[in-house]
Amino acid sequence: MDTPDVLVHTLREALEAELRREINAYHVAPYELYYEMLAYHMGWMGEGAGAKATGKRIRPLILLLCTAASGGDWQKALPAAAAVEFVHNFSLVHDDIEDRSEYRRGRPTIWAKWGIPQGINAGDALFTISHLTIHRLAEFFSPDLVLQAAQILLQTCLQLTQGQFLDISYESRAEISLEEYQVMIEGKTAALFAACAHLGSLIANCDPVRQHHFREFGRALGLAFQIIDDLLGIWGDEATIGKSTSSDLLSGKKTYPVILGLQSNGAFAKRWRKGKIQPEEVLTLAQELEEEGIRAATQAEATRLTQLALAELSAAQPSGPAAEALSSLTRQMSQRVQ
Amino acid sequence: MDTPDVLVHTLREALEAELRREINAYHVAPYELYYEMLAYHMGWMGEGAGAKATGKRIRPLILLLCTAASGGDWQKALPAAAAVEFVHNFSLVHDDIEDRSEYRRGRPTIWAKWGIPQGINAGDALFTISHLTIHRLAEFFSPDLVLQAAQILLQTCLQLTQGQFLDISYESRAEISLEEYQVMIEGKTAALFAACAHLGSLIANCDPVRQHHFREFGRALGLAFQIIDDLLGIWGDEATIGKSTSSDLLSGKKTYPVILGLQSNGAFAKRWRKGKIQPEEVLTLAQELEEEGIRAATQAEATRLTQLALAELSAAQPSGPAAEALSSLTRQMSQRVQ
To answer: Could you report the predicted ipTM of this complex, rounded to two decimals?
Structure first.
């Protein structure tokens, strides 16, 4: 039996091949540039292509590990794994337009390279391809299971659009509550992680109770992932995240630490309420926030969510090297630095 | 048995109720504005709401008529009919952003009212809702049929994104050939019409040969629809189309009559090649094009496609008042003025 590390490596290679096979199908005349935009965004083509440009592929990896850890054949779950990665990338392509982000993973975004119209349309293409891809489960499974899987993915997309709606709406608000923030990240981040773990266990034909625990595991993991993303958005090492370290403070995004900082009503809150943060203030403000205990509180929340994820994972009764890989991946989540 | 007119009226009412039921499900806190944007775009809410704002609902009507004309129960086809109308509206929402169109059916577009980020996201929501809606066929049909229907809709969305890709790409080209234009409208317009007729006959459990003829009927009807749209984009009555009559000449869109005009190499082509058309030139240029026989040639192509559609419809062996409604709708297509 493989060690967890070898298994993860094998899954990553098989997944990347599956993703490429799907996108390569669209490399036909007269759609060369259509293909090129997708392959560029996926990290395979153009300047800066390579491991750093592909992203972490964390969501499909969780899906495949959940299938393997519940005794299923992960190879048969590849279409679902590819589908969730395409959904994630569709949402990145559109989010980058909505946020006017010109860089992603250290490279110009699709819209920055080819314009907003092609960017919107390329996102629509990835969205469509994701749902077409999950239908390929029909090669291995009954129409009934394929329909269930397709519906889980669609419900997740609905939650993504609802979370994104709130995120955009919050931009014009002076402050938001922690509860409002939580509703937003449930849709924007946790829903897709939950769907990955759910789909993985559904494909392995787990009983409904275990499927439920897998789903809750994914959800808690997704929430922890987002909280750490928020932490890195203020205190992350610029060199390792591919965009300006402090962009969250500059953009005025109301992330978890910012909301805590506003609640603590100290020097940070006083400055924030005076208007747009300037680049030269960013380091001082991050330091003030840290001195007010906000970095530690953010880290503690991520750790709490990680513990919750581990408890749900344990209740889901995973087994084998995939189970080990899932729990070490979860433990690493709250310590990640990129 | 109903007359064709009574049947069409009944179908329209049932369809509108189905569309509303789907969207109303999203009218929940804290997503009130998310709901409002969708209901506004569908023509039910806000300034100018009403029959003129909803659009013609021609695609779902074709779907329902094809079900009824092949002996199926159109009521069971309502989820598919609602789904194709949502797909159409998703594409309008994104196209309006891509084309920077501030008005649609005489009203401000979603992005013009609520900004580009909410506009993109509302389009994504309609896209997701369309695919969730077609899954509701599962109430009446086997998982196998639902999967087939869902895949037809997804393949159509893929063609839409390919057609839209070409349309955007052509904007930066000086001229395009008739063949390039045809490939573009196959994806951008004909694919969804073809899917409507195909889905309608699939749901009625037609044999594959008849399904094929229904599909080809829809495709030819869609092409005719687009050619007439192009004609109305230059010679239509401003009062009846809800946007500036001559916007196609002003925007530099390479539509069917423009391509014919460039090929005929007369006064129109000479002027067009000198650069952007100004509003005060529009009437003269439209007249020149007409004098060069381009309006008549465009009308003739629409008539040819309409005849082709009627031949395919006949081969599909439709029956009853729905068959009569389909053929009269087809005959009206090439004569429509809005």
So the answer is: 0.96
Residue A167, H or E segment: helix A143-171
The whole-angstrom distance between B124's CA and the closest CA on chain A is: 7
Backbone angles phi, psi at A179, to 5 degrees: -65, -45
Task: Please list the helix, strand and coil fractions of chain A in percent, rounded to the nearest 5, in that order.
Answer: 75, 0, 25
CB B228 within 8 Å of CB B200: no
Query: How confident is the model over B223-246, as pLDDT tens digits?
Result: 999 999 999 999 987 523 444 444
Domain ranges (residues) in chain A = 4-333
Asked whether the bond before B30 is cis by omega within 30 degrees of 0, the reply is yes
Give B197's contacts (C-beta < 8 A, 6+ positions apart): B62, B63, B66, B214, B215, B217, B218, B219, B221
Nearest-angstrom CA–CA distance, A243 and A233:
9
Closest CA to B60 of B50, B52, B68, B70: B68
For B162, which of A31, A120, A165 is closest by C-beta distance?
Answer: A31
Contact A30 B180 (CB under 8 A): yes
Flag if B121 and A161 touch (Cβ within 8 Å). yes
Measured CB to CB, residues of chain A less than 8 Å from chain B are 30-31, 33-34, 94, 97-99, 115-118, 120-121, 123-125, 127-129, 131-132, 135, 138, 142-144, 146-147, 150-151, 154-155, 157-158, 160-162, 164-166, 168-169, 180, 183
The CATH number fitting domain B4-333, selected from 1.10.10.10, 1.10.600.10, 1.10.3470.10, 3.40.50.620:
1.10.600.10
pLDDT in tens, B44-96: 999 999 999 999 999 999 999 999 999 999 999 999 999 999 999 999 999 99
Look at A94 and B124 and tell me if their CB atoms are within 8 Å: yes
Amino acid symbol at A112: A
Q: Which of B121, B144, B161 sits opposite A128 (nearest CB)?
A: B161
- Asked if A144 and B146 come within 8 Å (Cβ–Cβ), the reply is no
